[in-house]
Design brief:
44% helix, six-stranded parallel beta sheet, four-stranded antiparallel beta sheet, 353 residues
């Protein structure tokens, strides 16, 4: 992209406004940058309501305060880099790119959105947010990684993608995927059907992720050979897992004892990823979550790291992020109300004494 021309001038109110003219390379389709019917341009205008954006041919003129104009210019530069890799743009990717530019000076949207994790069945799996990229990088760099965050942030999906990548690269010889079957109280023998039929409802999300990343016809063969194992957490007890990529999903539903049991299964040349959402605990009342306390227990332990994902990393429908935030506010208000009621009870009790 050619260097933009810019100048500063005073508007009618006397405040200073900056104007930049950005020349987009003629080799790049403006439709791919701005969207069909200017859909993507409207997204940029919505994200920067204080900027005036004018498009003429392959030139984009941006006017507003200096910080806003600079941010719009950086965003367009990043979008051009993404397009040059052959990727398309969506309103969601533009929103995420804008959030990255506002949140980080060290990592750019293009470096995040063009980082390939796994290519399979005609599609490429990539991180879509800055925290997702940090999560993926943490899996590369550490032996045990905890991915904690709300539904839809890609915790499990990206972990399975890294497991398949490690298997294909012969870094491990098998993949082990496990979840606690909380609804069955781990007492699967009381359920009807074969073992496969008993555990299928609890492990289905892991199967779904595998089917997205591997040829479906190869999965039964790999499972028969033991290269891929999908099993309830109870089946991990008493084992040492060498040369494996091990994923514990829905870890918020483990007890402290189960979490300790799982982590101590780690063998040589293995990697563990533990995922969960501490706001969705399904354990019986009074049973503490192993995921909630493990961070305090393992704080400072070398080669163990925790990655926190938030509602801003949700890559499902836009409303999912809003729903997660709404529930977070509701829970915070309830906790505050409960604290206030407890404080009032203590005050009355002290007054009676």
């Amino acid at each position: 992209m050619s260097s933009p021309k810019s100048h500063t001038r005073d508007d009618s109110s006397g405040s200073s406004a900056t104007e930049h003219r950005i020349v987009v390379p003629t080799s790049l389709s403006m439709v791919s940058l701005l969207g069909s019917g200017d859909e993507l341009l409207r997204t940029i205008e919505r994200l920067f309501p204080d900027a005036d954006i004018l498009v003429r041919g392959n030139e984009i003129t941006v006017r507003g305060d200096a910080d806003t104009v600079n941010l719009v210019e950086r965003l367009i530069d990043e979008l051009v880099v993404v397009l040059r890799t052959g990727q398309g743009l969506t309103p969601e990717s533009i929103e995420r790119s804008t959030a990255m530019l506002r949140d980080s000076e060290s990592e750019t949207p293009a470096s995040v959105l063009t980082h390939n994790i796994l290519s399979s069945r005609g599609r490429t799996i990539r991180a879509k947010t800055l925290n997702q990229k940090r999560y993926v990088d943490a899996i590369d760099a550490h032996t045990i990684v905890f991915g904690i965050g709300p539904a839809g942030t890609g915790k499990t999906y990206l972990a399975v993608a890294k497991a398949v990548q490690a298997l294909q690269a012969k870094q491990v010889t098998r993949i082990i995927l496990t979840r606690p079957a909380v609804e069955a109280g781990e007492r699967l023998g009381f359920l009807p059907g074969t073992l496969s039929e008993k555990i299928d409802p609890y492990l289905r999300p892991l199967y779904d992720a595998l089917h997205d990343m591997m040829e479906p016809a190869s999965i039964p063969r790999l499972m028969t050979e033991g290269t891929i194992e999908v099993a309830p957490l109870a089946y991990m007890r008493g084992r040492t897992l060498n040369d494996a990529f091990i994923i514990l999903d829905e870890a918020q539903n483990t007890s402290p004892e189960q979490m300790k049991m799982f982590l101590t299964r780690l063998g040589f040349s293995s990697k563990m990823v533990v995922t969960g959402d501490i706001t969705q605990i399904d354990l019986p009342s009074g049973t503490p979550s192993g995921l909630k306390i493990v961070r305090e227990i393992l704080d400072g332990v070398e080669d163990v790291t925790f990655t926190q994902l938030t509602s801003r990393d949700v890559v499902r429908h836009r409303l999912v992020s809003d729903i997660v935030d709404a529930y977070g506010r509701y829970d915070a208000e309830r906790s505050a109300d409960a604290g206030n009621r407890a404080s009032r009870r203590d005050s009355r009790s002290r007054g009676r004494r």
